[in-house]
Amino acid sequence: MWQVYLSGEIHTDWRDQIISGADQRGLPVTFSSAVTDHEASDAAGDSLGKEASPFWRDHKSAKVNAIRTKTLIEQCDLAIIRFGDKYKQWNAAFDAGYCAALGTPYITLHDADIVHPLKEVDGSAMAWAQTPEQVVELLGYLTLQQ
Amino acid sequence: MWQVYLSGEIHTDWRDQIISGADQRGLPVTFSSAVTDHEASDAAGDSLGKEASPFWRDHKSAKVNAIRTKTLIEQCDLAIIRFGDKYKQWNAAFDAGYCAALGTPYITLHDADIVHPLKEVDGSAMAWAQTPEQVVELLGYLTLQQ
Amino acid sequence: MWQVYLSGEIHTDWRDQIISGADQRGLPVTFSSAVTDHEASDAAGDSLGKEASPFWRDHKSAKVNAIRTKTLIEQCDLAIIRFGDKYKQWNAAFDAGYCAALGTPYITLHDADIVHPLKEVDGSAMAWAQTPEQVVELLGYLTLQQ
Amino acid sequence: MWQVYLSGEIHTDWRDQIISGADQRGLPVTFSSAVTDHEASDAAGDSLGKEASPFWRDHKSAKVNAIRTKTLIEQCDLAIIRFGDKYKQWNAAFDAGYCAALGTPYITLHDADIVHPLKEVDGSAMAWAQTPEQVVELLGYLTLQQ
Amino acid sequence: MWQVYLSGEIHTDWRDQIISGADQRGLPVTFSSAVTDHEASDAAGDSLGKEASPFWRDHKSAKVNAIRTKTLIEQCDLAIIRFGDKYKQWNAAFDAGYCAALGTPYITLHDADIVHPLKEVDGSAMAWAQTPEQVVELLGYLTLQQ
Amino acid sequence: MWQVYLSGEIHTDWRDQIISGADQRGLPVTFSSAVTDHEASDAAGDSLGKEASPFWRDHKSAKVNAIRTKTLIEQCDLAIIRFGDKYKQWNAAFDAGYCAALGTPYITLHDADIVHPLKEVDGSAMAWAQTPEQVVELLGYLTLQQ
Amino acid sequence: MWQVYLSGEIHTDWRDQIISGADQRGLPVTFSSAVTDHEASDAAGDSLGKEASPFWRDHKSAKVNAIRTKTLIEQCDLAIIRFGDKYKQWNAAFDAGYCAALGTPYITLHDADIVHPLKEVDGSAMAWAQTPEQVVELLGYLTLQQ
Amino acid sequence: MWQVYLSGEIHTDWRDQIISGADQRGLPVTFSSAVTDHEASDAAGDSLGKEASPFWRDHKSAKVNAIRTKTLIEQCDLAIIRFGDKYKQWNAAFDAGYCAALGTPYITLHDADIVHPLKEVDGSAMAWAQTPEQVVELLGYLTLQQ
User: Fold this and answer.
1) Which chain D residue's Cα is nearest to H72?
2) Under an 8 A CB cutoff, do E88 and G114 touch?
3) Scanning every residue of chain C, which has its alpha carbon at the shortest distance from the alpha carbon of F110?
4) Chain B residue whose CA is closest to A116
5) Is F2 helix (H, G, I), strand (E, B) or coil?
6) Along the 146 residues of chain G, how does pLDDT read in single tens digits?
7) Residue D146 contacts by C-beta under 8 Å, 6 or more apart in sequence?
8) What's the half-sphere exposure (Cβ side, CA atoms, 13 Å) at E137?
9) Closest by CA position to A138, among listed A123, A126, A124
10) What are the percentages of helix, strand and coil residues in chain E, rounded to 5?
11) CA distances for D9 relative to B9, C49, C87, angstroms
12) Burial class (CB in 10 A: 0-12, 13-18, 19+), F46
C-alpha cells in the first residue's frame, strides 16, 4: 500500500480526479492532504483564542496546520504537488522543498506555461505531469504487481 | 563565524545592504547565495550542450544550480529568505521548505502586504523582518560575544 | 491513526479529559504516557535492588522510566505537554526539548500566568492551549477525514 | 579543541568561574552560551516591531534566541546545564532534553536539595557536579593530552 | 515478515526461482522489485509526453522508475543483487551502492568468473551466492523461528 | 506491542525464563534473537561453499548471522544483554555498543562478580538486572496499561 | 573550498585534466580519489597476509580500499563519476548509488554511446558531462565568488 | 588529515608503536584514545564525590569516561581496536559495535588464537591486522597522496 500526499491548489477538483481514478483502477494507494476547506484552514488556530493582529492569527493557524501537513508528508511515500493558475501558492513550493530535503520523491502537476518559474521545483521532482489522468497512469505503473 | 545563506529575490540590492551592514559592524558572519546573475543562472547548463526543448534547458540549468544551492544551504547555520513584490519566487519558498525539513533556522524578509500568502513559510520561520537593517540588527544580536 | 503522547502534570485529570473527549468524538487517536502513579514511578527501579543513597535510587528509577518514555515519545506523532501550577515539572520541559530536537510537534497546555517562564518551551511548540477541551478540538481538526 | 555550551541560570557567576578556571589551566576548550543579559534576551525580538500582547512579545524573542541557542547546542561537544535555587528554569531542562535527543553528552550542575525533582534530567546526564570547580576538574580530565 | 528486494538481471528466471523456493518452504518473506518488463520499463515516462531526444526519454523513464525502486529499497530489510553474464548492469551495481550507504544488508548472486570486477560490490555485501537455491537456503536460515 | 531483542549467552535457559515469564503475565511483548543453536550458527555460511581457512569460515558465517542480528536489533525497542560466567562473549558487548550508538535502550543481565569489567557496558545501559525474574518484572512495569 | 571526489576509470588521464584545469583557473576546489595505481589497489590487503583464494584476496583488498573511498566520498561536496569505454566499471556505478543514497550530488562523465545502459545512473545525477573541460567549466560556475 | 581512534588494551605499548611508526613516515594522521592510565580511568568520577558502592563508583567513572570516548569515536574517520591476551576487554568489543552502528570503519588488531571468539567483531571490521607494523602500513596506504 502506497501513501500519497496531495499538496497544493485547493480551488479545482484535481484531488478528486486522482482519488477516483485510482479507486476505479483498484490501485493499492491511500491519499492524504492538508485540510482543504479554505475557511477552516485559515481559522485553524481560532479555537485557541482570537488574535487582534492578522499576522499572529495567520501564524497560529499556519502552525496548527503544519502539525498535520508535516506529519502526513513525513509519512508519505510520494507527493503530488499541484500548481494552478491563480494565487501565489508558496505553500506548494514550500512542500516541494520539504520533500526534497527529506529525500521523499514528488511529482509536479501543472500546465506548460509556468515551466520557467517552476524550474527549481521541477528540477528536484521525479516527474512533471500535466493532467490528473497522467498522475493516475503513473500510480498504476508504480504500484504494478508482477 | 556564522554561515548565512541569502535566498530569493535577485532584482533589488537587499543582499548588498545586509553584507555591507554586517561588514560595517564587523560581525563574524560569512554570506553565500545562488549565482545571482539572472542570465548566467538560466544558462547554467548550456555548457553541457544546447537543448531544443525549453523544459529541458531549464531542467538542466536548474539541476546545475541545485548542486550549488543545496550544498550551500546544507552548510549554512541560518538562511535569510527574501520575497519581493514581483514574480512567482517559488524557488525562495522551495528553499524555505528545504531549510524547514533540515531543521536549519531561517528568517523571512518581506513587506507586510504579502503576510497572508506567506503564512506557511512564515509559520516555520524563526523571525520575520521587513528591512535589511533589521536583519543586520538580528545578526549582531545572534553573534554577540560576551 | 495518530499516536499522541501526554507528558507532564500527574496531579489533575487533564489526561482523562482529553482521552474521554477524543473517545466521545470517535477520533482516530491513541494515547500513551509515562507511568502516572507517582509512587510506582519513584519506585520503578526498586525491583532491581534497594539503594542506600537517595540520588542513586532516583537515578535508577529515572532510567527505568526513561526506557518507557523515550520509546513512546519517539513513536508518537504529536505530544501534549502539560504544566500545572505546582512543583518544578522539569521533566515536562525536558520532554519538550526532546521533542523539539527530534522534530516531533508538540502542543503546550498551561494557564496564562506562566507564559513568561515558559517562553522558550512555547517558542518551539506548534500551539499553546489553555484547556483540555481546546486540545480535543485541535485533535479533531488535525485528524479530519475529508 | 572542545566546544562546551553553558546552559541555565544567569543570576550567579558560575559561567565566569568555569571559564576562568579552564583558562588558568590552559584547557583546550571554548565556551558558548545564550545571550545572558536578561533584559536584552527578553527584548531580542523587539527590533522587528513592538507587540501589544505579552505572549507574542515573548514568543518573538524566544524564537530569535532559539536561532542562537539551537545552533550553538548543535555545534557543542558537551553541555553544562546549571540549575540554581530560584525561578522555574524550564529553559535549562528544555536544553537538557534537546541534548539528550541529539545524543550530545551533558553534565548537570546543581545543589543536592533539588536532586529529586531533577531525577529525569540527571538520569540522562553523564555526570552531576555540585560546584564549578568540579566541572573544571572534569574538563581537565576529559581533555587530557597523553 | 522480512521484506526482500530483488535487484538486477531481468533476462533469466532467478526471481521466480527464489520466490517459488521461499514459497515452497513457507518462509515469512515478501518480495519486491523494479518493473521487470524491459519494454514497459524503458517506456515508463512516455505517458507524460514523447521526447525527441533519446537521452531525455531515458532520463524521464529512469526517474519514474526510481520513484518505485528507491521506495522499495528503502523499505526492504535485505536486497539480493543479481549480476548475469550479459549487458552492463550498472543499475544493479548502483542499487548495491545505494544499499551500502543506507546500511541495508545485501547479498550478491553471480557466477565465479566475475568475482574480480565485482570485488567492490562483493566487498560491501554480507554474502555472495552462486545459485538461487543458496539464496533460498539463506533466507530459511535468516528467518528461522526458534 | 514491544519488540525485545535477547542478546548474549546461549548456554543457559535465561531466554526461556524471560519468554515464559512474560507469557504467563500476558505482557504485550514479542521477542527475537540470533540463531541460538551454536553449531548451526557457526555453520551459517557453509551452504555458500566450504572454506579451507578457519578465519574465512568464521567470517562468512559471522556476516550471514549479522544480516539477522543487525536487522532484529534495529527493529527492537529494547534489548536485554546477557553475560554468563564462561567464554569471551565479545558479541554480547558488541551488541551493547551497537544499541548504544543507535540510541536503543538496553538492560544488562549478569552477576555481581563481573561488575567491574562490564562497567562501560553497564554505564550505557538503562538498567542492570541479576535475574530473569527481574527482567520480567521490568517488562511488566514498562508495558503497563493505565 | 569545495571537496570534489573523482570516481571511476583509471586508464585515461581525465583526473589530471580536471585537476590541472581547475588549477589553471585558480578554483577553490580540492580533489580526492581512490588509490588509482591498479596493481597497488589490487594488492591493498596483501600486507595483512597472503590469501590462497582469489575471492578472499580481492575481498580483503576491496575492504581496505573501501576505508579510503567511503571516507572520502562521505567528506566530499560533489563527486565526478567517470565511465570509460572498457571494463565493467561496476565500482563507479556503486559509488554513484552510494552518493545518491547519501544525498551527495554527482556529475557523470561519459560518451554519448553509453547513455542507455547508464540511464539509472544518469537519472540520479545532477548533470552529464562528455569532456573534462565541461567539468572544469561547471566547477568554475559552481564556485563563482560574487 | 585523518583522525584515528585507538581503542582497547592498555597494558602493552601498541599505541606508541603505531603513533611513532606513523610519525616516522610523516603520515597525515592524528590519534586519539580514552585516558589510558588505568587508575586515573577507574577514578574518573571520584572528584564528584566518593561512592560507598563499588557498582556506582564504576558507573560514575564509566559515564565520565564515556563523554570522552563517545566524542572522540564520533569524530574519528577510522578506529583501530586492539584485543590483547588478558582480561575481558568488553569495552573494546563495545567500541567496535558502536563504530559498526555509526558506519565508522574499524580495523581489529589481535593474534590468530582469538579469531573464533572475535568472529562477530571481525565480521564487521574492514580489516584484521596482527601487528602494529601492519596497521602503520595500512595507514600509509590509506592516506597516500597521488
Assistant:
1) D77
2) yes
3) C48
4) B58
5) strand
6) 999 999 999 999 999 999 999 999 999 999 999 999 999 999 999 999 999 999 999 999 999 999 999 999 999 999 999 999 888 999 999 999 999 999 999 999 999 999 999 999 999 999 999 999 999 999 999 999 98
7) H33, H35, H36, H37
8) 17
9) A126
10) 50, 15, 35
11) 42, 35, 18
12) middle
User: Could you tell me if B88 and A114 are in contact, meaning their C-beta atoms sit under 8 angstroms apart?
Assistant: yes
| DSSP element (H, E) containing E32 | strand E29-33
Name every chain C residue with its beta carbon within 8 A of the beta carbon of F126: 63-64, 66-67
Q: How far is H21 from chain C (nearest CA, A)?
A: 43
| ipTM value | 0.97
Say how many CB pairs under 8 Å bridge C and F: 44
Is the dihedral angle over the CA atoms E140, E144, F3, F7 positive or is it negative? negative
Question: Chain B residues within 8 A (CB-CB) of chain E?
Answer: 52-53, 56
| CA separation for the pair H96, H81 (Å, rounded) | 7
Does residue E111 contact residue E128 with C-beta atoms inside 8 Å?
no
Quick one: cell of H124? 564487521
Which residue is listed with cell 536460515?
E141
Decide: H14 and H82 in contact? Cβ < 8 Å: yes
Chain C residues at the D interface, defined by Cβ less than 8 Å, are 54-55, 58-59, 61-63, 65-66, 83, 87-102, 112, 114-124, 128
Q: How many CB atoms lie within 10 A of CB E2?
A: 18
Strand order in the sheet with B2-8: B29-33, B2-8, B78-82, B106-109, B127-129
pLDDT reading at A140 higher than 90: yes
The pLDDT of residue C146 = 86
Do G141 and G4 touch, CB atoms closer than 8 A? no
Instruction: Provide the residue-wise pLDDT of chain D in tens; the chain has 146 residues.
Output: 999 999 999 999 999 999 999 999 999 999 999 999 999 999 999 999 999 999 999 999 999 999 999 999 999 999 999 999 888 999 999 999 999 999 999 999 999 999 999 999 999 999 999 999 999 999 999 999 98
* pLDDT given at position A126: 98
What three-state secondary structure class fits F44? Answer: coil
* 3-state secondary structure labels for all residues of G5-59: EEEECCCCCHHHHHHHHHHHCCCCEEEEECCCCHHHHHCCCHHHCCCCCHHHHHH
Tens of pLDDT along chain F (146 residues)? 999 999 999 999 999 999 999 999 999 999 999 999 999 999 999 999 999 999 999 999 999 999 999 999 999 999 999 999 888 999 999 999 999 999 999 999 999 999 999 999 999 999 999 999 999 999 999 999 98
Cβ-contact F42, F65 below 8 angstroms: no
Q: Could you give the C-alpha distances from D122 to C58, C90, D107, D125, D129, in angstroms and in order?
A: 9, 11, 8, 5, 10
Of G77, G105, G134, the CB nearest to B48: G134
Beta carbons of G90 and G2 less than 8 angstroms apart: no
Determine the residue type at C98: Y
Q: How far is CA B42 from the centre of its chain?
A: 17
Contacts of D115 in chain C (CB under 8 A): 54-55, 58
Q: Do chains H and B touch (3 or more CB pairs under 8 A)?
A: no
Which residues, in sequence order, are CB contacts of G88 under 8 Å at separation 6+?
Answer: E88, E114, E117, E118
Instruction: List all chains that touch chain F, counting a touch as 3 or more CB pairs closer than 8 Å.
Output: C, E, G, H
Contact residues on chain D for C87, CB-CB shorter than 8 A: 117
Tell me the chain F residues in contact with residue C40 when contact means C-beta distances shorter than 8 Å.
Answer: 141
Query: 3-state SS of A70-122?
Result: HHHHHHCCEEEEECCCCCCCHHHHHHHHHHHHHCCCEEEECCHHHCCCCHHHH
